[in-house]
Amino acid sequence: MNLEEFVIRVKNSQAIVFFTGAGISTESGVPDFRSPGGVWTKYQPVLFQDFLASEPARIQHWQLKKATYELFKTVKPNIGHDAIYDFERRGTLLGLITQNIDGLHKLAGTSEEKLVELHGTDRLVTCLQCGKQYAPADVYETLGDEFIAPTCGDCGGLLKSANVSFGQSMPIAAMQRAQTWSEQADLFIVIGSSLQVQPAASFPVIAKRSGALLAIINRDPTPLDEVADFVHHGAIGDFFRRLQGMLGDS
Length: 250
Ligand SMILES: [Zn+2]
Known about the structure:
- The protein is 38% helix and 18% strand.
- It is built from ten helices and nine strands.
- It has helices at residues 3-12, 39-42, 48-53, 55-72, 79-90, 104-108, 136-140, 172-184, 202-209, 236-248, and strands at 16-20, 93-98, 115-117, 120-127, 133-134, 159-163, 187-191, 213-218, 230-233.
- The strands form two sheets. A six-stranded parallel β-sheet has the order 3-2-1-7-8-9, sandwiched between helices. A three-stranded antiparallel β-sheet has the order 5-4-6.
- The longest helix has 18 residues, at 55-72.
- Bound molecules: zinc ion.
- Zinc ion binds at residues 127, 129-130, 132, 152, 154-155, 157.
């Protein structure tokens, strides 16, 4: 289907699900952490079991997250995040599933009940023992050049950034919500995800099998392009500018 036909489907859809990955945030200045020069090449992500077992691993986690925190203080949502929030305001957004931990969808206005952050968020710190939540500033601003891994003021348990680390189990309630939305969507739109990581790649497949129209907007080809009904390769911001123009025309 071409862009004009896709826009007609967007206009007629009442239960749109968006699925976003790193590609939607690059135009906000969030680098792909895996890319050369990305923060992951400086500080390796720590496996969850190592975090639990070793203080040096915990220090490494906090060094990586502190660098990320400094970056996240400066980045803002872009036209892609704003455009998805517009669908919520229009009442046609069933849900938004994101792989991103940068919190930019929430900053753009997307409400808690419309949002599943599959990999958690770096915009919160939680206690692994009692679940108490901390604002990142309250933790990171206390970490100088030399520090010990921070612990919970209430129970003494280990604190950790609220992202889902490698080796840490996916949040069950979030996964179930994402699955239900995928089954109920009439239009499922992937934005800026290479769809190469499971379980991320399973949701578009579930949606398609359940009868949704599947659209994939990404810079590069994805493994699911051939089963999608509409595919667009290019910059995300440019695509949303065109889409908004066409949606506004009628
Ligand atoms: Zn605690």
